[in-house]
Design goal:
Radius of gyration: 28 Å
Strand content: over 45%
Distance between the termini: 51 Å
Largest sheet: 7 strands, antiparallel
Number of strands: 14
Length: 227
């Protein structure tokens, strides 16, 4: 049999940061920071799943198969034969993330106090679309019918067969808010107290196209997580 070929996978990572520090007074400093990070890891297979399905004349799959990379998979149980399979399936975007951060920090120094207060706002955006391993069909052959797995394969009688529907992508976003106050209080030359309080708030994620929902067990209702 011909080789399947190599997967094509690319990892894109980008980061940028900006910082501005302003001395309001000799004992009062304000610092503003802003940053963005991007990550994406799409994956493409070397074979067209829809084309393979057509060439083999496979039936019983879903009607609306997408024209993306994939593979009809054949597996054996109880034999040392390598399965016709791939380690990963088509994915685009590949766990793509946009993360933003906005910070404003104020430092104040007075006598034995070194105080700092700040607020951090961090919106997050996440998107993914992953094909099921069974999208173009998955079959497993055992010794169920003939007593020998490969003989079952030659007869075309699998013990199990699986199919799946086309992938549906999602776009989620949520928000992280943080506020903190700290004070390094120098009691004497040998003792310093590090005091502080921090509050963090994270919103539930929402899906931009209403493709995810939350089930309320108390009311029996389903609410979409979209804006």
């Amino acid at each position: 049999m011909p080789t399947i070929g190599q997967n094509q996978q690319r990892r894109d990572v980008s980061n940028a940061n900006l910082s501005f520090t302003y001395n309001v007074k000799s004992n009062l400093v304000n610092e503003f920071r802003s940053g963005i990070s991007f990550n994406n890891n799409p994956l493409n297979l070397p074979t067209s799943g829809k084309q393979i399905v057509s060439q083999l004349g496979l039936v019983g799959l879903v009607d609306n198969l997408p024209d993306i990379q994939g593979l009809f998979k054949v597996r054996f149980s109880g034999l040392g034969l390598t399965a016709i399979d791939v380690p990963n399936d088509w994915r685009s975007p590949g766990n793509r993330e946009f993360n933003y951060t906005f910070q404003d920090l104020v430092s104040w120094f007075h006598a034995r106090h070194s105080m700092k207060a700040g607020i951090i706002i961090a919106p997050h955006f996440h998107a993914d679309k992953l094909a099921s391993p069974d999208l173009f069909g998955t079959t497993t052959f055992t010794n169920r019918f003939t007593g020998f797995p490969y003989a079952d394969f030659l007869l075309g009688i699998p013990s199990t067969a699986a199919r799946a529907y086309p992938p549906i992508g999602y776009r989620r976003h949520w928000l992280n808010d943080n506020f903190f106050v700290t004070d390094d209080f120098k009691v004497n030359s040998k003792l310093t107290l590090n005091l502080g309080v921090r509050y963090e708030y994270r919103t539930n994620f929402t899906e931009a196209n209403g493709r995810e929902a939350i089930f309320d067990a108390n009311t029996g209702t389903i609410s979409p997580t979209c804006t």
